[in-house]
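Bench notes, afternoon.
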Amino acid sequence: MHRSREKRMITMTSGSLFVNIFIFALPLMLSNVLQVLFNMSDVAVVGKFSSDENALGAVGSTATYVAVFTGLLIGFGTGVNAVVAQRIGAGDDEGTRRASHTGFIISVIFGLVIAALAMGLARPVLTLMGTKPDYLDGALLYVYIYFTGAVGTAVYNFGNGVFSADGDTRKPLVFLTIAGITNVLLNLFFVIVCNMSVEGVALASSISQWLSCVLILAALVRTRRVYRLRLSQLRLHGDIAGRILLLGVPAGIQNAIFQIANLFIQSGVNTFGNEVVDGNSAAVNADSIVFELMAAFYTACTSFIGQNFGAGNRQRILKSYLVSLAYSFVFGLVLGLVLFFSADLFLAIFTDKAAVIEAGKQRLTVMCLSYAISAFMDCTISASRGLNKTIVPTIMVIIGSCLFRIFWVYVIFPVQGTTTLLYMLYPVSWTITAAAEIVYFVFAYRRSVRVLTSPKTPAEAAEGL
């Protein structure tokens, strides 16, 4: 690699964690927000410019459903990130090479499976959610077109995982910036110029997903790093595939579980009038922005812990967790307060209707004061993932953030039946799950220290923990 490129790489196993984690996370924050803009710009454009009065509700009603499956794709990229980071940290060039090529093959297969599931389950799930009849046909059309880009999203997240594991978060940002700008321009073109509606914004998102895929693949083919993609080396290595799936699938399920629980919450929202449904559809975009900005520090947590575990640097494992947690908490707190005091301006991006804005503010009032709480849960889960621990954290999420939320929607919410009581389930479930996740991480961390102080080499320890 050229020396100038080496200088731009972030060193995870030495130097200031406060500085390196922030520099690592900054491009990821911008990258994550651009991914959110794919769907957000769809909602904004149809809400402001479409002649179809049901377009906003139709696209907005799919937000949680789409997030279930994109969460699975993002989780897969997390698995790639953790495995590659551990191999790089251990100095295992051959293992890194195998992880890259195996990860690419799995990403294509995984993307096809997700596309088939998302399209096949759309009608029964959206109907089960209580999607209003006026919105259902448009919502189905959006889902069918949007998920033609699922393979592109899977491959992009694979490439993002590989580059991030090596400390390079700038390339994915540049590629997603290009794709994000393309998405917004195509949204405006299809809706305003071509007079399209739901189908136009869905098509724009699909095209943009494929563009980000092509760009990141080209970079992986051109790079001089050990994980460079070569056609002659494309093989599915069973041991590597198993490890990627063991980390990636639970991470994806974890992401999806949050959204599956949100499907039940959406069913609660659907019991109110169209203004509340539309207001919730607009306000939920704030959640996406804040969570994705905070998620950059969760990725940093997994990558830094993974590399330091692979390198045997046990002192930096706990420090990486605490620094990442501090950053994510502060960002969640500050962003929540900013949105709280600018709720009217934010919601006006998506609608001009006063009743819809007022309904959206009801959600933002609860959520903006609660975002920081979620850091304790999500960052701790990411830290456990860096230590190869995903099964138990996922089970905890199922209980604390899925089953508990369903219980809340069907048992506690009907007591008063207000939107405030419905939205309160978020901070309550985050608090319960975070407490359990922190206890488990303490156990996993202590076990990792014992493994690293054993006679095994760091590479053997990373394989065996």
